[in-house]
What does this fold into?
Amino acid sequence: MTKTAKNILFIMYDQLRFDYLSCAGHPHLHTPNFDRVAALGVRFSRAYVQSPICGSSRMCFYTGRYAQSHGAEWNGFPLRVGEKTLGDHLRQAGMDCWLIGKTHMRADLEGMQRLGVDPDSIIGVRTAECGFDVWVRDDGMVPEGPDGSYDGRVSPYNEWLKQQGYPGDNPWSQYANSGIRDGQIAPAWLMENADRQANIREQDSETPWLTDRALEFLDEQAASDANPWCAHLSYIKPHWPYIAPAPYHDMYGPNHVPAPLRHPCELDNPHPVFAEFAMSSIGKSFQRDETRKKVIPAYMGLIKQCDDQLGRVLDHLEATGQMDSTMIVLTSDHGDYLGDHWMGEKMFMHDASVKIPLIIYDPSSRADGTRGSTCDELVESIDLAATFVEAAGGEVPTHWIEGRSLQPFLHGETPEAWREFAISEYNYSLTTAAARLGVSDEDARLFMVADKRWKLVHFEGGFRPMLFDLKTDPEEFTDLGSSPDHADVIAKMYGYLGQWGRRQSQRGTRSAADLARMRGASRSRGIVLGAYDENDIDADLIAKYTGPAKADYRS
Amino acid sequence: MTKTAKNILFIMYDQLRFDYLSCAGHPHLHTPNFDRVAALGVRFSRAYVQSPICGSSRMCFYTGRYAQSHGAEWNGFPLRVGEKTLGDHLRQAGMDCWLIGKTHMRADLEGMQRLGVDPDSIIGVRTAECGFDVWVRDDGMVPEGPDGSYDGRVSPYNEWLKQQGYPGDNPWSQYANSGIRDGQIAPAWLMENADRQANIREQDSETPWLTDRALEFLDEQAASDANPWCAHLSYIKPHWPYIAPAPYHDMYGPNHVPAPLRHPCELDNPHPVFAEFAMSSIGKSFQRDETRKKVIPAYMGLIKQCDDQLGRVLDHLEATGQMDSTMIVLTSDHGDYLGDHWMGEKMFMHDASVKIPLIIYDPSSRADGTRGSTCDELVESIDLAATFVEAAGGEVPTHWIEGRSLQPFLHGETPEAWREFAISEYNYSLTTAAARLGVSDEDARLFMVADKRWKLVHFEGGFRPMLFDLKTDPEEFTDLGSSPDHADVIAKMYGYLGQWGRRQSQRGTRSAADLARMRGASRSRGIVLGAYDENDIDADLIAKYTGPAKADYRS
It folds into this structure.
């Protein structure tokens, strides 16, 4: 019997670098469970996110559309009411779409009110939750400052911690994301504390907690007569605050920290926008050796914990006989500079930030020929929405979803005219860097356009571009953006960017099938153009307009 | 006392060329009422529509957004639910927004159903009617062919004609838009009939009928305690079918028909897309002298009728003392080739098609210095939405409306950094030309980018561009698109087009004020990035994360 995927387990980590997995070549970090999925599936080596920041990147994943198309260009930009999501498309194909974890979705409450969408109706809840049915939503971020709470939502994880007896209002902050020093809370927000043991039982920490919720979901679905489902299991880790519970807090040490991927030439006459980012407080922190020596082992420990918890999920699927019917996807919303290129965080266009791990296991027999292989084609995060719709048996709505199904690569086929370039965008208008650079909201935006050889970064506001030769300089040290010898390359990359900018991204009310149906149809519905007399037109097209004049109204 | 506009009368004609008015220099057509408004206001000599086809162009006017931004790129493409319209913006500023006539709006019924918008609710009706409250809607197009009716809507005008005793099911077709020949209906769809007298009493024809509705509207508003209003008085004429009632049918004759603006060099090695359009049946018809000699006098007669009816409106405003409180706008949704450039209809990028008449009378005292003047700056149809919001006392929502207020030009001020280029788009994927050229839906699109000197037309699908020098060749005869001497100009125009393609057009859920409020705010809500230790951070920003550890959960 031919096996096919019935369900989709769409697992996302947050801020997981593409190269911090053993299957991707990390020298010290051993991730046997990621590798186990890679051995069963295809690992994509050139997968880019459409925006290297959580909220915007995720809206791209969840809509299958570029950030410029859906407009949610930064954290906290609500996804506009009426944007179609994975949930809309999958449900149309008969597949449920569930959320277990983080989305970073902000509801467009103003738009919902304007259109009279009741927030308590099913339509309203799904609209507010980015199209998902919520098994559990926890964005994994419960910071608080002098002006109050960052998120404002109740965190189910935090509430659960309180039920387990963790004291205080915010055990997420004071236990899961803090250690102890001299009897005092040692918050992981201060990176000197990253090497401490998180003050939480390992099984109570965020990654196992969410895994438990996922296993409950799997059991409940298996026990019911449920529709096929896509479940978005979406972890907050290894996202900062960087601190790990035992035993992960001391599995790795400074001797496992790779040398930073940076070169003094990067700071020699640097691009002004890059320089502003690198010289931000986070950049300067990660330029310090002690930051990297504390943070990176914690980051690795958190990934190791993710791997172990992934093992629990895989074991559960195997034990319940679901491996043959479940497509498994492992990916991340963006990377983490970790000091590479003199930078911290993400939000710029080097591979450390914009490239993601992407591993897809398709249980279908048609994928048997590609198991354990690597695909080096240019892949975008928006391709997953198309892939999932196709896996659900639907037809990809190309008038909404801008990504393309990866199924051909999973099935060892060569897709027709695969993309020649990948795009990523970052809107930094809300950062203090924009203010320091003195650029307007409109100009505080940058775009990456990359083919397999070159990566160009375009900046609005009159700055020169940056250019990297990914073949001769895979480390992206040498910025050729002002090299006269590369004018032709730069022109070619701008040609790609221009082509992308002219795309149709808002034709959502007319599908390709609609167009085929409509083409030329107005003529047979009475629009007779170009006819001078009856010799120019078929009789049936003019028939409605002829006959005896029954009355003469000419004065 | 300083006068200001209380109300806005936004009058649109359909397919009215920019140069078929005496105030715009037409040698034979005398339009004293258009000229009367021009003498009171500002006439814009470089006003472009964002798409030279009714439906798409109108959606640009009514949203203040480019066609690529709202996605309604052809007739019959529904305006996506959630797109904000003039009505949304004006009502927010306390001004009602009424429709009297045509919009060409197609409701996004699928989107409304998806979001649970009740079509019978006020929200639903406004969503379906492009944001307008409907005084009367009549799209002025009731054709019928072997496959049925083009529009499908009930035409109030047609119903009214029946009430007046006009026989048959479709007096719009058989009387208003037909003459008589040998006792038979002589439909104006056959252009040989364009010189006949329409078989209708003049006062019953479309333009006076709609004017009567407008005068009723004015009276009712004046008699009530109504809010300030914007009324879109939107005529179908002088749009085809070309035929005029007496006395307009024979006011002009072949001797008033200007020579066609065309040159044999245009057909010498022509651009393949242009050639396909010019060699369509409508193009070939208008290449025949007899077509122009029949059609153009009828077209002029219809405009003359529009002018007389405009006179009734102006007289009514004067008689009721409303001229001092009513902004009056005269414009069109696109032009008409009428045989220029070997073409008929519109839907291409020469001035005959893409340039529109635009006259704005602002009763405000601040406009006294500009009365009777001409403005030669680059103006786009999307600017009207911004102009109206400003006239209504609102703040232009730049995160929705892409046009800019024309008020500075009306008030004799110099706006800051006015646009350097204008854009127009045309999606021809639904035409038979696309099939003949063998281009895909995605590639069947063309873009105009024009500054005051140059006009470049870009074609998707690998074609070369067209380029015209508007200074040395204002007739647009000489296509320089393949001229090596103009490579720099072409590059510059592509630079503009690229800049336009990268704009933010979908940031509707975040206003400029939102951005200002949000900038840097996450830090004081607990997102502490870049701090290695307490020396790197203000104490208040880390205060929430400190204190005694109440319990030790480290195993």
Remarks:
- Chain A touches chain B through 139 residues (CB under 8 Å).
- The first strand of chain A starts at residue 7 and ends at 13.
- The two ends of chain A are 81 Å apart (CA to CA).
